[in-house]
Amino acid sequence: MSVAAFPVSRERGSGPSSATRAPWIDQVLRLDYVFLLAVLAVTAGGLMVLYGGTHSIPILAASAAKQGVFWGIAVAAMIGTVMVDYRWLNRAAVGLYLLNMVALLFVLVGGSKINGARSWIDFGPVNWQPSETMKVATALVCAQYLALNPDRLKGFTGLIVPGLICGVPALLILAQPDLGTSAIFFLMFLTMMWMAGASRRWLGIIVLSALVGMGSVYPLLKPYQKARIHVFLNPESDPAGKGYNVIQSKIAIGSGGVFGKGWGEGTQCTQRFLPEHHTDFIFASTVEQFGVVGGLLLMAGFAVILLRMVRTMDRAKDRFGGLVAAGLIAIFLTHIVLNVGMTMGLVPVTGIPLPLVSYGGSFLVTTYVMFGILLNVGSRRFTFIR
Questions:
Q1: 333 phi and psi angles, rounded to 5 deg
Q2: Cβ partners under 8 Å of residue 121, min gap 6
Q3: Fewer CB near the terminus (10 Å): N or C of the chain?
Q4: Rounded to whole angstroms, how far apart are CA atoms 207 and 187?
């Protein structure tokens, strides 16, 4: 599947619309309601998991209520994104990218430090994590460049500009340091280049070079990042220290059994044996409370969302919309794989949250903005694109 051959335009009125209806009504009727309902259902399930794992812990008891407020803001942001023609996002992409770039630079100087990473900007009670919004801005700018330059991608030189678009923010985020989020930019770059029709040979060379280069990057990693790699290879080497989280996460998942211990009855979480069970390790909390069945239901919800995202990408009628969708799919899928993988000890711990489930306002709102863009692309597929 590739968006490289998407047509540049589609005549207005070529889809199912009525001249007697207001344009906004057609816009609402064309929304992908299967996708929308799946998103809302998974978010509601995540809120259930969050409440069950935190309501009995005084310091975290308000987490579910706060997440509910974040959810309301996220829905409003998604509605606003749907109502704005995504062609405007094409025109505003560079400005949004530069704004987020300035924010990333500011974070390195005066950002708030949480869990060893300087990633946040505080606005009184509101915290903004620029790396989250930067992912969306990068997808927009990269899609814009690829849509305007479809014939420059067959050789290596055609990959330089997209590589810089994705690589510069990735390096700034790596400097925070946030290795997990910076890796998402690399995977987004590969996905968008592949879908745009870039040279497969050069993409393969880039991947092999990256794998070889990991050895040279290792000495530059922070001590805690090196420790995460050691713990990934052998968690029992430091069971009371760096390996503690992964070991407790596995215990939580294993103790859930088939049907779980029950809503709010997960002892690994409620008795705080498992740290960060409301953020990084919330999948472990899900399985402990609702068992393998609950975990599979969550994965099924993610599968429905991803399939509808792919459908939107495949049906987009201009290269920009299709390539933006490809970038957002890469972001969403990578978050799921890295988060679930680290809770099960299959990948190193990276601090990547689980979409729609982990506690956090910046990430939830940004994810809903991503979904708003996808709904926008899908519902305007019959609109003339200049």
A1: -65, -40
A2: 103, 106, 107, 110, 111, 112, 127, 128, 129, 130
A3: C
A4: 10
